[in-house]
Automatic annotation (TrEMBL):
Name of the protein: 50S ribosomal protein L7
Pfam family, one: YlxR
Record-annotated membrane-spanning stretches: none
Source organism, top-level taxon: Bacteria
C-alpha cells in the first residue's frame, strides 16, 4: 500500500516536489507573506526550502511582480 504524498510546485523553479520540501507563501490583499505553519487560510503558493536560488528576486518576479524584492529579502531573512 503506498502512501499518497501531496505535491506542490515551486513558484521560482517550477519543479513539483513533496509539500514538506516547500515553504508556503500566503497571498493576501496586502501582499505576500511567509506561512511557516502552512495552515493559514487563503490562497497559497510554494517555494523550495533548500534552494537559495529560488529565493532570488529575479526568480520570484514572475510570481510576485513588484513585490519580488521584498519577498526575496523576507525569504533570506527567514532562512538565515
Ligand atoms: Zn524551487
Amino acid at each position: 500500500m503506498s502512501k499518497h504524498v501531496p505535491e506542490r510546485m515551486c513558484v521560482a523553479c517550477r519543479r513539483r516536489r513533496p509539500k514538506g520540501e516547500l515553504l508556503r507563501l500566503l497571498l493576501t490583499t496586502a501582499g505576500v507573506e511567509i506561512d511557516p505553519t502552512g495552515k493559514k487560510p487563503g490562497r497559497g503558493a510554494y517555494v523550495c526550502k533548500d534552494s537559495p536560488e529560488c529565493w532570488e528576486e529575479k526568480k520570484l518576479r514572475r510570481f510576485a511582480k513588484g513585490q519580488a524584492k521584498a519577498l526575496s529579502e523576507a525569504l533570506r531573512a527567514f532562512f538565515a
